[in-house]
Each structure stands twice: as structure tokens, then as C-alpha cells.
Amino acid sequence: MATGIRLSVAIPVHNEESVLPELLRRLRRVLDALAGGQHEIVFVDDGSTDQTVEILEEAARKDTRIVTVSLSRNFGHQSAITAALDHATGDAVVVMDGDLQDVPEVIPEFVQKYQQGYDVVYAQRVRRKEPWPLRLGYFVFYRMMARLSDTRLPLDSGDFGLMSRRVVDQVRRMPEHHRYLRGMRSWVGFRQVGIPVERAERHSGRSKYSLMRLMKLATDGIFAFSIVPIRAAAFAGAFVMFLSVLYVAYAVYAKLFLQKSPQGFTALLVAVTFLSGIVLLFLGIIGEYVGRIYEETKGRPQYIVKRIVSRRRSELRDRKGDEVETIGVSEQESLWQLQDQRR
After folding, report:
1. 266-289: per-residue pLDDT in tens?
2. N or C: which end of the chain has fewer CB within 10 A?
3. Residues of the domain holding 286
4. What's the pTM value of the predicted model, to 2 decimals?
């Protein structure tokens, strides 16, 4: 494989103004040392309410490698990654978070594995810095997910990793809205390898993944890559029916041979309540699958682009074919001059 590639780094961000200067400095240093080019950094702002957009657009006007894509509102982390993949043009794409828990200095190791013929190189997180309840939750989830899924999913691997162009193109063809990109990346196949990477602490600011968002991501992964919950409903129903048959057989035996009928209002009440809970639980599980089918039938876009800023004006078009509002360097300089005159 060629020693030099054109690399894209895809980064979703949301209210990360305090992190961006350090992130940009470290990313530029890493890309400057990489052979090949011209590399690019695709930032997707997922509806930030601080100065994130302004910082990124200013950087894009000064650095031809930076593309800033602003979404019309907050569509969620996985949708923002999808937007970044749609706008990345490199031979390979590195996906990473913008909080510097995914360290840019690992990117050359990804590229080295890519040059050895691997289409997917993912980071396997070791020695995480989160609180122990969160680390325990991650540990349990990844192993449960690996057992439930029909697709082989690597343990302790997040979105941080490199994908070749053909893997990115296949992921982009997947239309589902409830996206679990690390699972979709595994589903595509090709040669894949993991690299142990120590998970760094967040540089500054607060995590945008609340407990509810983490739970949603976990359920998206389970329901997108496993039908075991539905099978569990069937097995539970069959088991309860088996117990019912045993109880009926015992009741008949007690009536005919022991001359007594089984009694117990409390036992009956507990049994009815328990079975009602099981029914409602599995109705909810089935409802999750049905609801996801309903979401897919709407056919809504996964995100809406409000604005793209880049000095590479000839490439400023949504890669899905949609027209978007763009401002190139010369246009923006004219706007600045007009604003100065009005002042």
C-alpha cells in the first residue's frame, strides 16, 4: 500500500469551546507529521450554544485543511458523526470525539495499521479515567452486547478509530436512523484490528453524554444488532406456559387422589401480578422494535446542514447532493469589510 494517504479526521462537537484551541493545536501537529496529504479535519457542530461555531469557522477561514459543518439543531452524537462521514473526502477517515479523551497522538498508529492492509483500525480502551460505577457499566455492557449480537463486536471499543474509504462508503449506505456506528463498522467486515489505547480524561468542560443518553445509545446498539430480546419473550412465554401446565396437572392430581383443591388467594394474586409484569415488559420490548420500524418509515433525513465554511470552495456541497449555504474566504472577507463600514 502507498506510504502516503490523504487522511480525513471527522469530529462531532457540541459546546466544546474550552477544548477546541488545544484540540486544534494537537491535531495540526499530528497531521503535519503525517506523510501524504492534503489531509483534512471535518468538524460537525451539533447545535452548540456557546462559541464553538465561531471558533471553528475562524479556524476554517485560516486553515485550508479545516471544514466546519454546522447542523440546524442538535441531532445527537451519532447523527453528527454520520454528517462528518458524509463530508469527509479522504482515502481513510479517523473518527474521534472532540473532548480529547480520544488522543490525536494515536492517529499515526492507526495509519500504520491501515498501511499494513487493515480497513478498520479501532481503539480498545484501557485504564479508563471515569468514575468506577461508569467503568463497571461500560464493562458489563460491552460484554453483554457481544453475547447478544449476531455480529462479532470487539470489546471495549468506541467510535474512535480509522476506516478505509470503502468501509466509509458502505457505512454511508446504511439508512437507519437509530445508529450504533461502532456496530455498523463491525458489520461491514473487511480486515479489522484493535489497538490498546489508554482512555484520557476529558480536557475541560462537562460530558454531553448524560446517563439517559448513554442508556439510549446502549438500547440503540442492542435493538439494532440483536433480536435476542424478542426471543427471550418467546422463551419466557413458553416457560410460563410450562409452569401453568405443571400446576394444572398438580391441581387435577390433588382433586382426584388427595380429595382436596389447591388454595391460596395470596399465591394467585402474586402469580397474576408477576405475569402481568412480564407481559408489560415484553410488550415494551416489542414496542421498541415496532417504534424503530415506524421511525424508519418516515424517511426523514438524519440531519440538516445549516452552513459549511471552508477555504476549499469548490468542494462546498453536501455530498448527498443537497444545496447548502456556504461562505468561502473571499466572501467572508467581503462581509467583514461591509460590517466594518457599517460600524
Report:
1. 567 667 777 777 787 778 888 878
2. C
3. 228-298
4. 0.69
